[in-house]
Amino acid sequence: MDNKIVMKKIISLTLAFSFLVMSITGIMLYIVPKGKIAYWANWQMFGLTKTQYGDIHITSMILFLVVTIWHIYYNWKPLVSYMRDSAKKITLFKKELLIALGLNILFVAGTLSGIQPFQSVLDLNDDIKSYWEKEYGSPPYGHAEESSLKSFSKRIGADTDNAVKLLKDSNIKVDSIEQTLLEISKENGIASKVIYDIIRPKQNSNDEKIDFLGRRTLDELASLNKISLEKSIEFLEKQGFKASSDTKMKEAAEALGVTPYKLYEKLKTL
């Protein structure tokens, strides 16, 4: 068999398989939680993590691009013929070319402008990510899993020695308080969230009624008669954070280097 024909078959099959892999990983990346949630809860699906799906998607995309260039090289004449008119001259105004180009422009422009049905696809993506966040909860602050147990305990207002005791009582091995939550969780085959749930200070019954404290704005908490809006804004601005009634607790807490719960405890006393 002609080597050129064999090569064309290999290229076509490689394109098909790499497209299939990219499609699967693309779907998975569409439904995965946000990075902070995925890392915090050690999210996996079919045995793979968010990072692994992303890595496979990137390498498959590179393979797809390389083989696509190769495919264009071997099929240059047929591709050029698609752009020729009845007089055999190349034209950029051939109907098929304009339709193909128009479809791509429509998808790019429609996505950027937020028109339907493109926006619905993006909204569904947000809804899925919100579902995961409600299911697993959010870390008390960004990249919390990368903090040492000592640093993490301090930031959430927990005693480090007691945290170690609570973890060991739960059969979780801790070699050092300088270990990160991620290292401890990997060594014990658990999620960083589990460590947090074990060592975090217990809230009183009134505080437990406030769902999603980090997402609450100062105005919302004030309307629940939990804090003084005016005094809270004044306090935050004295700390160097420009606050308003729409400021979310998580934003303010991260700026001050504390958890939303610790900030809330402070604002209640004002």
UniProtKB/TrEMBL annotation:
Q: Name one Pfam family in it.
A: DUF4405
Q: Does the keyword Transmembrane helix apply?
A: yes
Positions of the Flavinylation-associated cytochrome domain? 10-76
UniProt KW keywords: Membrane, Transmembrane, Transmembrane helix
Q: Does the keyword Acetylation apply?
A: no
Q: Locate the transmembrane regions by residue number.
A: 12-32, 56-76, 97-115
UniProt xrefs under InterPro entries = DUF4405
Protein name, per record: Flavinylation-associated cytochrome domain-containing protein
